[in-house]
Amino acid sequence: MLATMLFPDEIREYRGFQDYFSQRRGWFYALLLVLFVVDVIDTLVKGEKYYHHYGIAYPIRQTLLIAGAAGGMAFHSPRYDAAYAFCSLVAQAVWITVLFNVLD
Description:
Blueprint: H1 2-6, H2 17-45, H3 48-53, H4 57-74, H5 78-99
Helix pairs in contact: 2-4, 4-5
């Protein structure tokens, strides 16, 4: 659903992707926030052992991603969007590298 919001089939009635996103950014960040919260709930439902498998990095990462999505709903700025996207991608890359020992 989030990918569909970012890359629609038709944007003729908009001046481009930036205009399209700026008009739907509230919905995008709200759905992103819900996704991150559901991920935390899902992880907790799987049990304490599963939750602690990820260590302290998981709650820190999720808290920052949730706060960032909430910030995206509050701050209507293309600079914020770019900074959040960049930081989220870096966080994901570090998370994957550490969790799966990619650099060993």
